Amino acid sequence: MTTNTSEQLKQKVHDFWNRQSCGAYASQAEKHTKSYFEDIEEFRYREQPYIHEFAQFTRYHGKNVLEVGFGAGTDFTQWLRAGANATGIDLTQEAVANLTHRIAVYGLPQPKQFGVGNAENLEFPANTFDLGYSFGVLHHSPNTEKAIHELVRVVRPGGDVKIMVYNRRCVCAFKYWVKYALLRGKPWKSFYWALWNHMESIGTKSYSRQELKKIFTALPLQDIRIHTYVTSADYMAFSAFKPLNLLVRAALALAGNRQIWRREDYQFASPSNQKSRAEVEFTGNRLGLFACISATKRADK
Ligand SMILES: C[S@@+](CC[C@H](N)C(=O)[O-])C[C@H]1O[C@@H](n2cnc3c(N)ncnc32)[C@H](O)[C@@H]1O
Fold this sequence. Notes:
The protein is of the alpha/beta class. 38% of the residues lie in helices and 19% in strands. The chain has an eight-stranded mixed beta sheet, with helices on both faces.
């Protein structure tokens, strides 16, 4: 992508998210009131309760956390409530306004720093944060790999990286393909194309497991785990046509859930018996939209 096209795409992404931050549609209350933020928060964690197990907000009490792309600020609020030294950036003024009001409405402690910024050029020195967190953001940025590199760069060795990006081989992508490719007489179009053109802002990227493995193993990271979660966008993909949706639910059930539990992890008495983990460990339901990647930055680079 040329710089020019990349800048144009970034502007379109900005304009899309600047109209309304992600998840704000969940409230009909007056904007920036307590009810407004509570509706957004209640809906988010009812719909996606696994965000808590992924982010583990309270674990970062007193730690330096960077959230890239905080949107309506719901997760960012949890960092503040957990007593983290939180820093945040988002591409849009709309997100900054949401977070500014949210902090005031709840009387939350002031973040270390927050404002408009670009995931692809983080204005922080290398090795600064104990955690770099970005949920559902980096796949919207024109150069996603650069943004991932940036997040890893600013995390200190031994610190954590937690990123959610879209899994391409999921039910939700299939739905977009059926709707915008198959039913419009363009069955040769790919899932990638369907999500790029029709999922949220233009240019949304999605990744196969192999692609994620390639990207993340090339970085100075260890203990890379990728857990795919089924979302409402998968489970209700064809809710307008019940018979098809029932088939989708059967497929989700058949795909099963690869759990995180391994027998070796429970042989505490003899650590020498423990097998080392795979280079990248994949768990969860492989047909789910959300690929949640967690890893630790290696100390050697
Ligand atoms: C789908 S929303 C996710 C927001 C929030 N993380 C959440 O889970 O609700 C995507 C957010 O990423 C932001 N974003 C997109 N590209 C970005 C970039 N290059 N740098 C910083 N933020 C970006 C958008 O402004 C938007 O607020």
